[in-house]
Amino acid sequence: MDVWFEGVQSDPNVTVTLTVKDSSGNQITSDSIHLNVADFSFVDPHGSPIYQINPIWTDALNAAENADTSQFSFNTDPTQWAVPDDAAEVQLQGVCDPSSATISEFPMEDPGSASPDTMNVSGQDMTSAEPIVMADDDAVAAPTSQPSPLSVVNLPNLNVRTVFGGKAGLGVKVDLGPFDRFFRTLAVQKLTITLDNNNGLFAPGDNVGYTVSIVNPAANANYQIVTDVQGNWSQITGASNHFSAANIKAPPTGVDGIFAYVFTGPNAAQQANQFIQASQNGSPAPFYGQYFATASTAFYVGDAATEGNAWFKQAWASLINNNPTSGNPISRNRLITQNYVTMYNTNPLWAKWSGMAAFASYDVGSGIAGATVLNLIFPKNPITGEVPIYEALQEGNFGIFADVYPQFLAYQGGGLAAIQAMGALVDQQTQLPGWQQIDAGVSANGGPNLNGIWSGNQLLLQYEQQTIAQQKLYNPYPKLWASVSAYAPTVLGFQLAPPGSILASPIPGNGWSFAAVVQPQLQQGQQLSIADYNQRWLWVTDPNHGMLLTYEAWAGNNNAVDFNKLMSGGYL
Fold this sequence. Notes:
By secondary structure, this protein is α+β, with helices and mostly antiparallel strands. The chain folds into three domains: 42-77 and 85-188, no CATH class; 191-302, Immunoglobulin-like, CATH 2.60.40; 337-567, no CATH class. 33% of the residues lie in helices and 24% in strands. It has 14 helices and 24 strands. The chain has helices spanning 58-65, 268-280, 304-307, 310-320, 329-346, 352-377, 389-421, 431-442, 450-474, 478-486, 514-518, 533-541, 547-557, 563-567, and strands at 11-21, 27-37, 39-43, 52-53, 56-57, 89-93, 102-107, 115-116, 119-122, 125-128, 132-136, 159-163, 169-177, 180-188, 191-195, 201-202, 208-214, 223-229, 232-237, 240-245, 255-264, 293-301, 490-491, 494-495. The strands form seven sheets. A five-stranded mixed sheet has the order 4-14-13-7-8, with no helix packed on it. A five-stranded mixed sheet has the order 16-22-21-18-19. A hairpin with a 7-residue loop joins β7 and β8 (115-116). The longest helix has 33 residues, at 389-421.
Protein backbone atom coordinates (compact mmCIF):
# COMPACT_ATOMS: atom_id res chain seq x y z
CA MET A 1 0.00 0.00 0.00
CA ASP A 2 1.37 3.42 -0.99
CA VAL A 3 0.40 6.37 1.20
CA TRP A 4 1.08 9.98 0.18
CA PHE A 5 1.24 12.77 2.78
CA GLU A 6 1.19 16.52 2.35
CA GLY A 7 2.23 18.69 5.28
CA VAL A 8 0.21 21.85 5.76
CA GLN A 9 2.13 23.01 8.84
CA SER A 10 5.46 22.14 10.45
CA ASP A 11 5.50 19.27 12.91
CA PRO A 12 8.69 17.45 13.97
CA ASN A 13 6.87 14.23 14.80
CA VAL A 14 3.85 13.26 12.74
CA THR A 15 2.97 9.72 13.74
CA VAL A 16 1.02 7.42 11.44
CA THR A 17 -0.07 4.06 12.78
CA LEU A 18 -1.34 1.15 10.70
CA THR A 19 -3.37 -1.34 12.69
CA VAL A 20 -4.58 -4.68 11.27
CA LYS A 21 -7.63 -6.28 12.88
CA ASP A 22 -9.49 -9.50 12.23
CA SER A 23 -13.19 -9.71 11.36
CA SER A 24 -14.06 -9.63 15.08
CA GLY A 25 -12.19 -6.40 15.65
CA ASN A 26 -9.26 -7.99 17.46
CA GLN A 27 -5.89 -6.40 16.78
CA ILE A 28 -3.51 -8.67 14.91
CA THR A 29 -0.56 -6.35 14.41
CA SER A 30 0.35 -2.68 14.42
CA ASP A 31 3.17 -0.59 13.04
CA SER A 32 3.96 3.12 13.26
CA ILE A 33 6.07 5.52 11.25
CA HIS A 34 7.28 8.97 12.25
CA LEU A 35 7.47 11.84 9.79
CA ASN A 36 9.21 15.18 10.07
CA VAL A 37 7.19 17.95 8.38
CA ALA A 38 9.41 21.05 8.18
CA ASP A 39 8.55 24.46 6.72
CA PHE A 40 11.18 25.66 4.21
CA SER A 41 11.08 29.33 3.22
CA PHE A 42 13.13 32.40 2.38
CA VAL A 43 12.83 35.68 4.29
CA ASP A 44 14.36 39.12 3.91
CA PRO A 45 16.45 40.78 6.65
CA HIS A 46 13.19 41.95 8.25
CA GLY A 47 11.65 38.49 8.38
CA SER A 48 9.14 38.92 5.54
CA PRO A 49 8.76 36.09 2.95
CA ILE A 50 10.51 36.69 -0.39
CA TYR A 51 10.32 34.93 -3.74
CA GLN A 52 13.06 36.59 -5.78
CA ILE A 53 16.59 37.78 -5.15
CA ASN A 54 18.44 40.61 -6.85
CA PRO A 55 22.22 40.51 -7.28
CA ILE A 56 24.52 43.11 -5.77
CA TRP A 57 27.37 44.35 -7.93
CA THR A 58 30.69 42.91 -6.78
CA ASP A 59 32.43 46.27 -7.12
CA ALA A 60 30.05 47.73 -4.56
CA LEU A 61 30.91 44.95 -2.13
CA ASN A 62 34.60 45.36 -2.77
CA ALA A 63 34.24 49.07 -2.13
CA ALA A 64 32.62 48.30 1.21
CA GLU A 65 35.35 45.83 2.14
CA ASN A 66 38.20 48.09 1.06
CA ALA A 67 36.76 51.46 1.98
CA ASP A 68 39.31 54.30 2.09
CA THR A 69 39.05 55.54 5.65
CA SER A 70 40.72 58.80 4.63
CA GLN A 71 37.75 59.54 2.39
CA PHE A 72 34.84 57.82 4.18
CA SER A 73 33.72 57.52 7.75
CA PHE A 74 33.88 53.79 8.36
CA ASN A 75 32.57 51.80 11.32
CA THR A 76 35.02 48.97 11.94
CA ASP A 77 32.46 46.94 13.93
CA PRO A 78 30.75 44.66 11.36
CA THR A 79 27.85 43.98 13.71
CA GLN A 80 26.85 47.61 13.20
CA TRP A 81 26.88 47.44 9.41
CA ALA A 82 23.57 47.77 7.62
CA VAL A 83 22.32 44.63 5.88
CA PRO A 84 21.31 45.21 2.25
CA ASP A 85 17.62 44.89 1.49
CA ASP A 86 18.56 42.42 -1.25
CA ALA A 87 19.86 39.92 1.30
CA ALA A 88 18.02 36.68 2.00
CA GLU A 89 17.91 34.16 4.82
CA VAL A 90 17.01 30.48 4.73
CA GLN A 91 14.44 29.59 7.37
CA LEU A 92 13.46 26.07 8.45
CA GLN A 93 10.82 25.48 11.09
CA GLY A 94 9.98 22.19 12.80
CA VAL A 95 13.18 20.24 12.06
CA CYS A 96 13.20 17.06 14.15
CA ASP A 97 17.00 16.84 14.47
CA PRO A 98 18.71 20.13 13.54
CA SER A 99 22.12 18.64 14.30
CA SER A 100 21.77 16.30 11.29
CA ALA A 101 20.68 19.04 8.86
CA THR A 102 23.09 20.52 6.34
CA ILE A 103 22.17 23.64 4.38
CA SER A 104 24.22 24.90 1.43
CA GLU A 105 23.80 27.55 -1.26
CA PHE A 106 24.95 27.74 -4.87
CA PRO A 107 24.52 29.98 -7.91
CA MET A 108 21.96 28.37 -10.21
CA GLU A 109 24.47 28.47 -13.09
CA ASP A 110 26.83 26.21 -11.12
CA PRO A 111 25.01 23.75 -8.80
CA GLY A 112 28.30 21.93 -8.20
CA SER A 113 29.77 24.90 -6.35
CA ALA A 114 27.49 24.60 -3.32
CA SER A 115 29.08 25.64 -0.05
CA PRO A 116 27.61 25.03 3.42
CA ASP A 117 25.78 27.66 5.38
CA THR A 118 26.08 28.24 9.11
CA MET A 119 22.70 28.13 10.81
CA ASN A 120 21.41 29.51 14.08
CA VAL A 121 19.35 26.90 15.88
CA SER A 122 16.50 27.66 18.27
CA GLY A 123 14.78 24.50 19.42
CA GLN A 124 13.61 22.89 16.18
CA ASP A 125 13.90 26.03 14.07
CA MET A 126 16.91 26.98 11.95
CA THR A 127 17.81 30.35 10.37
CA SER A 128 20.86 31.47 8.40
CA ALA A 129 23.43 32.84 10.82
CA GLU A 130 24.38 35.49 8.29
CA PRO A 131 22.22 37.12 5.60
CA ILE A 132 22.99 35.81 2.12
CA VAL A 133 23.67 38.13 -0.78
CA MET A 134 24.17 37.11 -4.38
CA ALA A 135 27.04 39.09 -5.88
CA ASP A 136 27.44 39.51 -9.62
CA ASP A 137 30.37 40.86 -11.60
CA ASP A 138 28.03 42.72 -13.98
CA ALA A 139 26.42 45.92 -12.72
CA VAL A 140 22.65 46.04 -12.69
CA ALA A 141 23.00 49.24 -14.72
CA ALA A 142 24.92 47.40 -17.48
CA PRO A 143 28.13 49.51 -17.36
CA THR A 144 29.94 50.47 -20.54
CA SER A 145 33.03 48.59 -19.38
CA GLN A 146 33.05 45.29 -17.56
CA PRO A 147 34.61 45.33 -14.08
CA SER A 148 37.62 43.11 -13.72
CA PRO A 149 37.04 40.14 -11.43
CA LEU A 150 38.50 40.87 -8.00
CA SER A 151 39.14 38.55 -5.12
CA VAL A 152 35.99 37.02 -3.64
CA VAL A 153 34.58 39.43 -1.11
CA ASN A 154 34.26 38.19 2.46
CA LEU A 155 32.39 40.78 4.44
CA PRO A 156 32.20 39.69 8.09
CA ASN A 157 28.44 40.24 8.45
CA LEU A 158 27.30 38.73 5.14
CA ASN A 159 27.34 35.29 3.54
CA VAL A 160 28.33 36.22 -0.02
CA ARG A 161 27.83 33.96 -3.03
CA THR A 162 29.78 35.43 -5.96
CA VAL A 163 28.82 34.62 -9.55
CA PHE A 164 30.88 35.91 -12.46
CA GLY A 165 28.38 36.49 -15.25
CA GLY A 166 25.56 34.76 -13.39
CA LYS A 167 22.03 35.97 -13.92
CA ALA A 168 19.72 33.12 -12.98
CA GLY A 169 19.49 33.17 -9.21
CA LEU A 170 20.41 31.40 -6.00
CA GLY A 171 19.83 27.74 -5.18
CA VAL A 172 19.62 26.20 -1.74
CA LYS A 173 20.02 22.52 -0.86
CA VAL A 174 18.80 21.10 2.44
CA ASP A 175 19.98 17.66 3.59
CA LEU A 176 18.02 16.23 6.50
CA GLY A 177 19.37 12.72 6.18
CA PRO A 178 20.69 10.22 3.63
CA PHE A 179 17.35 10.04 1.80
CA ASP A 180 15.88 13.48 2.49
CA ARG A 181 17.20 16.16 0.16
CA PHE A 182 15.28 19.25 -0.86
CA PHE A 183 16.03 22.08 -3.26
CA ARG A 184 14.59 25.57 -3.49
CA THR A 185 15.63 28.51 -5.65
CA LEU A 186 15.40 32.28 -5.59
CA ALA A 187 15.33 33.67 -9.12
CA VAL A 188 16.72 37.05 -10.10
CA GLN A 189 14.11 39.66 -10.84
CA LYS A 190 15.06 42.96 -12.44
CA LEU A 191 11.69 44.22 -13.64
CA THR A 192 8.20 44.20 -12.19
CA ILE A 193 4.74 44.65 -13.69
CA THR A 194 1.99 45.55 -11.24
CA LEU A 195 -1.63 45.49 -12.39
CA ASP A 196 -3.96 48.14 -10.99
CA ASN A 197 -6.64 45.57 -10.17
CA ASN A 198 -4.14 43.02 -8.72
CA ASN A 199 -5.96 39.88 -9.90
CA GLY A 200 -5.64 40.25 -13.69
CA LEU A 201 -9.31 39.47 -14.43
CA PHE A 202 -11.08 41.75 -16.93
CA ALA A 203 -14.12 42.00 -19.17
CA PRO A 204 -14.00 42.75 -22.92
CA GLY A 205 -13.67 46.49 -23.51
CA ASP A 206 -12.03 47.19 -20.14
CA ASN A 207 -8.97 49.36 -19.76
CA VAL A 208 -5.94 47.55 -18.27
CA GLY A 209 -3.85 49.78 -16.04
CA TYR A 210 -0.39 48.65 -15.00
CA THR A 211 2.93 49.98 -13.72
CA VAL A 212 6.33 48.84 -14.96
CA SER A 213 9.28 49.43 -12.64
CA ILE A 214 12.97 48.56 -12.77
CA VAL A 215 14.19 46.91 -9.58
CA ASN A 216 17.03 48.86 -7.98
CA PRO A 217 17.63 51.30 -10.88
CA ALA A 218 21.10 52.75 -11.10
CA ALA A 219 21.52 56.49 -10.69
CA ASN A 220 21.94 58.45 -13.94
CA ALA A 221 21.36 55.35 -16.09
CA ASN A 222 19.56 55.75 -19.40
CA TYR A 223 16.55 53.38 -19.42
CA GLN A 224 13.99 52.84 -22.16
CA ILE A 225 10.89 50.87 -21.12
CA VAL A 226 8.89 49.21 -23.91
CA THR A 227 5.56 47.46 -23.38
CA ASP A 228 3.26 45.41 -25.61
CA VAL A 229 -0.41 44.66 -24.93
CA GLN A 230 -2.30 42.93 -27.74
CA GLY A 231 0.01 44.44 -30.34
CA ASN A 232 -0.21 47.99 -28.98
CA TRP A 233 3.29 49.19 -28.16
CA SER A 234 4.35 51.96 -25.77
CA GLN A 235 7.78 53.41 -25.09
CA ILE A 236 9.00 55.82 -22.41
CA THR A 237 12.29 57.01 -20.95
CA GLY A 238 12.75 56.35 -17.25
CA ALA A 239 12.93 53.65 -14.59
CA SER A 240 9.20 53.43 -13.83
CA ASN A 241 5.94 54.39 -15.50
CA HIS A 242 2.21 53.77 -15.33
CA PHE A 243 0.56 52.60 -18.55
CA SER A 244 -3.00 51.99 -19.69
CA ALA A 245 -4.19 49.69 -22.47
CA ALA A 246 -7.67 50.73 -23.62
CA ASN A 247 -10.56 48.62 -24.87
CA ILE A 248 -8.94 45.19 -24.59
CA LYS A 249 -10.23 42.33 -26.71
CA ALA A 250 -11.15 38.82 -25.56
CA PRO A 251 -8.60 36.35 -27.01
CA PRO A 252 -9.76 32.90 -28.19
CA THR A 253 -9.15 31.26 -24.82
CA GLY A 254 -9.35 34.36 -22.65
CA VAL A 255 -5.68 34.59 -21.71
CA ASP A 256 -3.30 37.29 -22.88
CA GLY A 257 -0.25 39.05 -21.54
CA ILE A 258 1.48 42.32 -20.85
CA PHE A 259 5.10 42.17 -21.99
CA ALA A 260 7.67 44.68 -20.77
CA TYR A 261 11.27 45.11 -21.94
CA VAL A 262 14.03 47.45 -20.80
CA PHE A 263 16.92 48.73 -22.85
CA THR A 264 19.78 50.65 -21.32
CA GLY A 265 22.94 52.42 -22.40
CA PRO A 266 23.69 55.30 -24.77
CA ASN A 267 21.81 53.64 -27.69
CA ALA A 268 18.82 52.46 -25.66
CA ALA A 269 16.24 54.50 -27.57
CA GLN A 270 17.49 53.28 -30.95
CA GLN A 271 17.55 49.64 -29.76
CA ALA A 272 14.02 49.96 -28.41
CA ASN A 273 12.73 51.39 -31.71
CA GLN A 274 14.38 48.61 -33.72
CA PHE A 275 12.90 46.03 -31.38
CA ILE A 276 9.38 47.42 -31.81
CA GLN A 277 9.71 47.66 -35.59
CA ALA A 278 10.95 44.08 -35.89
CA SER A 279 7.99 42.87 -33.83
CA GLN A 280 5.48 44.87 -35.88
CA ASN A 281 6.93 43.61 -39.16
CA GLY A 282 5.76 40.05 -38.68
CA SER A 283 8.36 38.67 -36.27
CA PRO A 284 6.95 36.45 -33.50
CA ALA A 285 6.17 37.83 -30.06
CA PRO A 286 9.73 38.30 -28.80
CA PHE A 287 10.13 36.27 -25.64
CA TYR A 288 13.90 36.46 -26.02
CA GLY A 289 16.05 39.29 -27.33
CA GLN A 290 18.88 41.75 -26.85
CA TYR A 291 17.36 43.69 -24.00
CA PHE A 292 18.58 44.36 -20.50
CA ALA A 293 15.58 42.83 -18.74
CA THR A 294 12.09 41.54 -19.43
CA ALA A 295 9.00 40.61 -17.47
CA SER A 296 5.46 39.66 -18.33
CA THR A 297 2.17 39.15 -16.60
CA ALA A 298 -0.89 37.29 -17.80
CA PHE A 299 -4.39 38.69 -17.70
CA TYR A 300 -7.72 37.06 -18.45
CA VAL A 301 -10.59 38.54 -20.43
CA GLY A 302 -13.83 36.64 -19.93
CA ASP A 303 -17.35 36.53 -18.59
CA ALA A 304 -18.49 37.29 -15.06
CA ALA A 305 -19.66 33.73 -14.37
CA THR A 306 -16.22 32.25 -15.04
CA GLU A 307 -14.22 34.99 -13.35
CA GLY A 308 -16.50 34.97 -10.32
CA ASN A 309 -16.16 31.23 -9.71
CA ALA A 310 -13.99 30.48 -6.68
CA TRP A 311 -12.42 27.38 -8.25
CA PHE A 312 -11.48 29.24 -11.43
CA LYS A 313 -9.95 32.02 -9.31
CA GLN A 314 -7.87 29.43 -7.45
CA ALA A 315 -6.69 27.86 -10.71
CA TRP A 316 -5.87 31.28 -12.18
CA ALA A 317 -3.96 32.38 -9.06
CA SER A 318 -1.76 29.28 -9.32
CA LEU A 319 -0.43 30.61 -12.65
CA ILE A 320 0.16 34.26 -11.83
CA ASN A 321 1.04 34.52 -8.13
CA ASN A 322 4.78 35.09 -7.60
CA ASN A 323 5.43 34.43 -11.28
CA PRO A 324 7.25 37.36 -12.93
CA THR A 325 6.91 35.78 -16.40
CA SER A 326 3.31 34.51 -16.36
CA GLY A 327 2.63 36.23 -19.69
CA ASN A 328 5.13 33.95 -21.40
CA PRO A 329 3.20 30.85 -22.54
CA ILE A 330 6.26 28.66 -22.00
CA SER A 331 6.48 29.71 -18.35
CA ARG A 332 2.70 29.37 -18.00
CA ASN A 333 2.77 25.89 -19.52
CA ARG A 334 5.30 24.72 -16.94
CA LEU A 335 2.96 25.81 -14.13
CA ILE A 336 -0.04 24.20 -15.83
CA THR A 337 1.91 20.95 -16.09
CA GLN A 338 2.99 21.20 -12.45
CA ASN A 339 -0.63 21.68 -11.38
CA TYR A 340 -1.66 18.55 -13.26
CA VAL A 341 1.18 16.58 -11.65
CA THR A 342 0.26 17.79 -8.17
CA MET A 343 -3.41 16.94 -8.68
CA TYR A 344 -2.62 13.41 -9.85
CA ASN A 345 0.00 12.79 -7.16
CA THR A 346 -2.43 13.97 -4.49
CA ASN A 347 -5.40 11.98 -5.81
CA PRO A 348 -4.11 9.06 -7.91
CA LEU A 349 -7.26 7.05 -7.21
CA TRP A 350 -9.64 9.30 -9.12
CA ALA A 351 -7.61 12.07 -10.87
CA LYS A 352 -6.66 9.85 -13.82
CA TRP A 353 -7.32 12.58 -16.39
CA SER A 354 -4.89 14.90 -14.61
CA GLY A 355 -2.01 12.44 -14.82
CA MET A 356 -2.55 11.90 -18.54
CA ALA A 357 -2.91 15.65 -19.01
CA ALA A 358 0.48 16.19 -17.34
CA PHE A 359 2.23 14.12 -20.02
CA ALA A 360 0.28 15.83 -22.82
CA SER A 361 0.92 19.31 -21.38
CA TYR A 362 4.66 18.67 -21.14
CA ASP A 363 4.63 17.61 -24.79
CA VAL A 364 2.69 20.74 -25.75
CA GLY A 365 5.11 22.92 -23.77
CA SER A 366 8.05 21.41 -25.61
CA GLY A 367 6.23 22.18 -28.85
CA ILE A 368 5.61 25.79 -27.82
CA ALA A 369 9.25 26.29 -26.87
CA GLY A 370 10.63 24.54 -29.93
CA ALA A 371 8.33 26.32 -32.38
CA THR A 372 9.07 29.69 -30.78
CA VAL A 373 12.83 29.29 -30.98
CA LEU A 374 12.73 27.91 -34.54
CA ASN A 375 10.55 30.78 -35.68
CA LEU A 376 13.03 33.24 -34.15
CA ILE A 377 15.94 31.60 -35.97
CA PHE A 378 14.12 30.96 -39.25
CA PRO A 379 11.30 33.55 -39.33
CA LYS A 380 8.26 32.22 -41.14
CA ASN A 381 5.01 34.10 -41.52
CA PRO A 382 1.90 32.17 -40.45
CA ILE A 383 -0.67 30.98 -42.97
CA THR A 384 -2.86 33.90 -44.04
CA GLY A 385 -5.65 34.44 -41.54
CA GLU A 386 -4.21 31.99 -39.02
CA VAL A 387 -1.50 32.03 -36.35
CA PRO A 388 1.93 30.44 -35.84
CA ILE A 389 1.86 26.96 -34.35
CA TYR A 390 3.30 28.11 -31.00
CA GLU A 391 0.35 30.51 -30.65
CA ALA A 392 -2.21 27.79 -31.42
CA LEU A 393 -0.55 25.38 -28.97
CA GLN A 394 -0.55 27.86 -26.09
CA GLU A 395 -4.20 28.72 -26.74
CA GLY A 396 -5.15 25.04 -26.54
CA ASN A 397 -2.96 24.42 -23.50
CA PHE A 398 -4.57 27.20 -21.47
CA GLY A 399 -8.08 26.63 -22.82
CA ILE A 400 -8.14 23.04 -21.57
CA PHE A 401 -6.63 24.05 -18.22
CA ALA A 402 -9.13 26.87 -17.68
CA ASP A 403 -12.09 24.61 -18.40
CA VAL A 404 -11.13 21.35 -16.68
CA TYR A 405 -8.66 22.08 -13.87
CA PRO A 406 -11.10 24.21 -11.80
CA GLN A 407 -13.42 21.17 -11.81
CA PHE A 408 -10.67 19.01 -10.32
CA LEU A 409 -10.07 21.64 -7.64
CA ALA A 410 -13.81 21.67 -6.94
CA TYR A 411 -14.11 17.90 -6.59
CA GLN A 412 -10.98 17.77 -4.45
CA GLY A 413 -12.34 20.51 -2.21
CA GLY A 414 -16.04 19.73 -2.08
CA GLY A 415 -16.83 16.49 -3.85
CA LEU A 416 -19.68 16.03 -6.31
CA ALA A 417 -21.73 18.78 -4.62
CA ALA A 418 -19.04 21.34 -5.54
CA ILE A 419 -19.08 20.13 -9.15
CA GLN A 420 -22.87 20.48 -9.31
CA ALA A 421 -22.65 23.96 -7.75
CA MET A 422 -20.49 25.12 -10.70
CA GLY A 423 -23.65 25.02 -12.83
CA ALA A 424 -23.15 25.90 -16.48
CA LEU A 425 -19.35 25.93 -16.08
CA VAL A 426 -19.61 22.13 -16.15
CA ASP A 427 -21.02 20.58 -19.33
CA GLN A 428 -24.23 18.83 -18.33
CA GLN A 429 -24.21 16.24 -21.13
CA THR A 430 -20.69 14.80 -20.79
CA GLN A 431 -18.64 16.31 -17.99
CA LEU A 432 -21.27 16.06 -15.24
CA PRO A 433 -22.02 12.37 -16.01
CA GLY A 434 -18.27 11.82 -15.97
CA TRP A 435 -17.96 13.26 -12.49
CA GLN A 436 -20.99 11.28 -11.35
CA GLN A 437 -19.31 8.07 -12.52
CA ILE A 438 -16.06 9.05 -10.81
CA ASP A 439 -17.86 9.85 -7.56
CA ALA A 440 -19.85 6.61 -7.67
CA GLY A 441 -16.63 4.69 -8.27
CA VAL A 442 -14.83 6.38 -5.38
CA SER A 443 -17.67 5.76 -2.91
CA ALA A 444 -18.72 2.29 -4.11
CA ASN A 445 -19.70 -0.26 -1.49
CA GLY A 446 -16.90 -2.67 -0.77
CA GLY A 447 -14.20 -0.31 -1.99
CA PRO A 448 -13.45 1.84 -5.04
CA ASN A 449 -14.81 0.71 -8.40
CA LEU A 450 -11.87 1.39 -10.72
CA ASN A 451 -13.89 0.62 -13.85
CA GLY A 452 -16.35 3.36 -12.94
CA ILE A 453 -13.56 5.79 -12.11
CA TRP A 454 -11.83 5.14 -15.44
CA SER A 455 -15.12 5.43 -17.35
CA GLY A 456 -15.79 8.81 -15.77
CA ASN A 457 -12.30 10.07 -16.56
CA GLN A 458 -12.69 8.89 -20.14
CA LEU A 459 -15.82 11.04 -20.47
CA LEU A 460 -13.82 14.05 -19.24
CA LEU A 461 -11.13 13.23 -21.79
CA GLN A 462 -13.70 12.84 -24.54
CA TYR A 463 -15.24 16.24 -23.81
CA GLU A 464 -11.78 17.80 -23.70
CA GLN A 465 -11.00 16.50 -27.19
CA GLN A 466 -14.43 16.73 -28.80
CA THR A 467 -15.35 20.17 -27.53
CA ILE A 468 -12.61 22.20 -25.80
CA ALA A 469 -9.62 21.26 -27.95
CA GLN A 470 -11.75 21.10 -31.08
CA GLN A 471 -13.21 24.58 -30.59
CA LYS A 472 -10.19 26.32 -29.07
CA LEU A 473 -7.29 24.66 -30.82
CA TYR A 474 -8.30 22.93 -34.05
CA ASN A 475 -11.38 24.55 -35.64
CA PRO A 476 -9.93 28.10 -35.80
CA TYR A 477 -6.82 26.99 -37.73
CA PRO A 478 -7.70 24.26 -40.27
CA LYS A 479 -4.90 25.11 -42.72
CA LEU A 480 -2.28 25.09 -39.98
CA TRP A 481 -3.23 21.61 -38.78
CA ALA A 482 -3.56 20.30 -42.34
CA SER A 483 0.02 21.45 -42.88
CA VAL A 484 1.22 19.83 -39.62
CA SER A 485 -0.57 16.55 -40.42
CA ALA A 486 0.92 16.39 -43.91
CA TYR A 487 4.45 17.29 -42.84
CA ALA A 488 7.08 14.63 -43.54
CA PRO A 489 10.68 15.36 -42.45
CA THR A 490 13.18 15.28 -45.31
CA VAL A 491 16.95 15.64 -45.68
CA LEU A 492 18.46 16.46 -49.08
CA GLY A 493 15.20 15.52 -50.72
CA PHE A 494 14.90 12.14 -49.02
CA GLN A 495 11.82 11.56 -46.87
CA LEU A 496 12.84 10.28 -43.45
CA ALA A 497 9.39 9.38 -42.11
CA PRO A 498 5.79 9.34 -43.36
CA PRO A 499 3.42 12.30 -42.93
CA GLY A 500 2.03 12.63 -39.41
CA SER A 501 4.89 10.72 -37.79
CA ILE A 502 6.13 13.83 -35.96
CA LEU A 503 2.90 13.70 -33.93
CA ALA A 504 4.32 11.32 -31.34
CA SER A 505 2.50 9.92 -28.33
CA PRO A 506 3.39 11.67 -25.03
CA ILE A 507 2.42 8.63 -22.93
CA PRO A 508 5.29 6.63 -21.38
CA GLY A 509 5.71 3.28 -23.09
CA ASN A 510 3.52 4.14 -26.08
CA GLY A 511 5.67 4.44 -29.19
CA TRP A 512 2.80 4.73 -31.67
CA SER A 513 2.57 8.02 -33.54
CA PHE A 514 -0.68 9.52 -34.78
CA ALA A 515 0.08 8.38 -38.32
CA ALA A 516 1.05 4.84 -37.29
CA VAL A 517 -2.27 4.26 -35.53
CA VAL A 518 -4.68 6.19 -37.73
CA GLN A 519 -3.36 5.98 -41.31
CA PRO A 520 -4.00 2.21 -41.76
CA GLN A 521 -7.62 2.69 -40.66
CA LEU A 522 -8.58 5.57 -42.97
CA GLN A 523 -11.04 5.10 -45.82
CA GLN A 524 -9.79 5.40 -49.38
CA GLY A 525 -9.33 9.05 -50.28
CA GLN A 526 -9.57 10.24 -46.66
CA GLN A 527 -6.81 12.63 -45.62
CA LEU A 528 -4.85 12.19 -42.41
CA SER A 529 -5.67 15.15 -40.12
CA ILE A 530 -4.96 15.73 -36.44
CA ALA A 531 -7.76 18.34 -36.53
CA ASP A 532 -10.31 15.60 -37.21
CA TYR A 533 -11.81 14.65 -33.84
CA ASN A 534 -12.69 11.12 -34.93
CA GLN A 535 -9.13 10.45 -36.07
CA ARG A 536 -7.72 11.96 -32.90
CA TRP A 537 -10.08 9.93 -30.70
CA LEU A 538 -9.08 6.77 -32.56
CA TRP A 539 -5.45 7.55 -31.63
CA VAL A 540 -6.56 7.83 -27.99
CA THR A 541 -8.82 4.76 -27.79
CA ASP A 542 -7.48 2.25 -30.32
CA PRO A 543 -7.81 -1.15 -28.58
CA ASN A 544 -4.35 -2.30 -29.66
CA HIS A 545 -2.08 0.74 -29.61
CA GLY A 546 -4.20 3.60 -28.21
CA MET A 547 -2.72 6.07 -25.74
CA LEU A 548 -5.46 5.47 -23.18
CA LEU A 549 -4.72 1.74 -23.09
CA THR A 550 -1.03 2.41 -22.42
CA TYR A 551 -1.76 5.10 -19.87
CA GLU A 552 -4.13 2.83 -17.90
CA ALA A 553 -1.36 0.25 -17.64
CA TRP A 554 1.13 2.93 -16.56
CA ALA A 555 -1.22 4.40 -13.95
CA GLY A 556 -1.89 0.93 -12.56
CA ASN A 557 1.76 0.76 -11.54
CA ASN A 558 2.45 4.43 -10.75
CA ASN A 559 0.68 6.54 -8.15
CA ALA A 560 2.83 9.60 -8.87
CA VAL A 561 4.43 11.49 -11.74
CA ASP A 562 8.00 12.60 -11.03
CA PHE A 563 7.83 16.26 -12.08
CA ASN A 564 11.60 16.72 -12.44
CA LYS A 565 11.86 13.54 -14.49
CA LEU A 566 8.95 14.67 -16.65
CA MET A 567 10.39 18.13 -17.32
CA SER A 568 13.78 16.67 -18.23
CA GLY A 569 12.23 14.35 -20.81
CA GLY A 570 12.90 11.29 -18.67
CA TYR A 571 9.58 9.64 -19.50
CA LEU A 572 10.12 9.74 -23.25
